[in-house]
Amino acid sequence: MRNPLAEQVVDIKPSGIRKFFDIVSEMKDAISLGVGEPDFDTPWHIRDEGIYSLEKGHTKYTSNAGLRTLREEVGNYLYRTQGVRYHADKEVLITVGGSEAIDIGMRALINPGVGEEVLIPQPSYVSYEPCAILAGAKPVIINLKAENEFRLTAEELLEAVTEKTKLLILPFPNNPTGAIMEREDLEAIAKIAIEKDIIVMSDEIYGELTYKGKHVSIAGLPGMKERTILINGFSKTYAMTGWRMGYACGPENIIEQMTKIHQFAIMCAPTTGQYAGIEALRNGEEDIIEMRTAYNQRRRYLMHAFREMGLACFEPFGAFYVFPCIKEFGMTSEEFASRFLEEEKVAAVPGTAFGESGEGFLRISYAYSLEKLKVAMERLSRFITRLREEQKK
Amino acid sequence: MREELLRIIEKNSRMNLKELAVILGVEEIDIVNELAALENEGIICGYHTMINWEMTSIEKVNALIEVRITPQRGQGFDNIAERIYKYSEVHSVYLISGGYDLLVSLEGKTLKQVSNFVSDKLSTLDGVLSTATHFVLKKYKEHGTILTKKYEDERELITP
Questions:
Q1: What is the pTM (predicted TM-score) of this model?
Q2: pLDDT at residue B33 greater than cutoff 70
Q3: What value of ipTM does the predicted structure carry?
Q4: Are B134 and A10 within 8 A, CB to CB?
Q5: CA–CA gap between residue A218 and residue A228 (Å, rounded)
Q6: Cα separation, A74 vs B106, whole angstroms
Q7: Gap between the Cα atoms of A137 and A119, Å rounded
Q8: CA of A32 to nearest chain B CA: how many angstroms apart?
Q9: What CATH number does domain B53-142 carry, 3.40.50.1100, 3.60.40.10, 3.30.70.920, 3.20.20.150?
């Protein structure tokens, strides 16, 4: 039998997290700091709408782009929070999580095999690079730096831009670093995007989890709406990861082509989730505030714990991750994470799972109760004290 | 900070001053001052512990009693409410809109003790027209805390 597999797919490295996960899954009593989803349950009134929609028999397909009411509510939300207007009929597409939007966005933009370049700042979420490859683009990695608090600077962007650059991924607030981009940071990026005629895919799935001012979308800056695909969703904002609900907004011509792929590949996002999504956007503001307040308390707690341990960490103002530096211990992120797991039974994800520039860092999620974080920090403190003593010998 | 502080200690009054200062991003002395002010103003009324007595071997009986009363001239319901809340068996007394006037929650050691309280003391008070006693069979949730089910983390240990 001949090899049935596509080389392009086989060549994609499995996610770095997977390898580590296999080790973790064998340690039943480990406590985890490795999760990329909220610890809260979906607020009851949102779940209730999902259940109610099932009771009423809303069990059919919706239109490909998603329920019209939901698209309107997405438009309202973005107008309310970012001052940018998206037309519900032409510029909004409801997707199966933000992940689908990333995938079909790239496929709608890239001419495969001709070397069109997608700029991917790293450390960042694991799926941009594989999606770019599968779409036939050439991924170009921009290694973000701790001294810039892992923001993307204009200089870094300019250095990476070539004649072939088509698309820039803008993953802020960032998983895994917790970095955010403020208005002036975005203005510098927008200027270059316009000058060099680059499309921006702005993944704002953690937008509501911003702890310094309000999240700013690049799509709201002058001249950017027409060259931005804004991706967001319900997973992090409303603790709805399992519902698989996201959306993409952008210029009509791009959304039209994305909708075409979505139509053939997916048909439509889950109907139950769409009804729940309407309720979330209409009446979920208080839930967001409550969850954001809790995350922010935990974030402060962890930063304080790191300071007490003398562990270097820039203060992140977004998402629910902190990204401490472990370079002082003279081992790789993976070695550190493995030993931490083995010796203290705490699972945290090595920074390298999110790109080479994550080397020397550890992603610690604070989607856990303060009580759990306290236990974990006691163990981390004990662990690094031991490492420092080892180093002295 | 005041509202956030209250929300935290409403759920966990045992959190120490240092921890409170850390998670609220202020100095410890600010917490001390704010708590003192809240106590002085009567906003913080106590630091009770929530106990699920059903898990112990100590027997307790809880009842909710609807009380209809005749309001008194110049005093309204306050006088009679005060007569009722002074009994140590009485946990809480609320003035209620609707079909009756006061909702009294009561804790006793035995069914008999509660019944005796209602028949001997409560219903014989001047101004009490009638009572309807409801015994609590099971507590599912109290003070926003679910008593019947432990939270289980269903999440995968590691996700990107």
A1: 0.92
A2: yes
A3: 0.83
A4: no
A5: 8
A6: 49
A7: 10
A8: 6
A9: 3.30.70.920
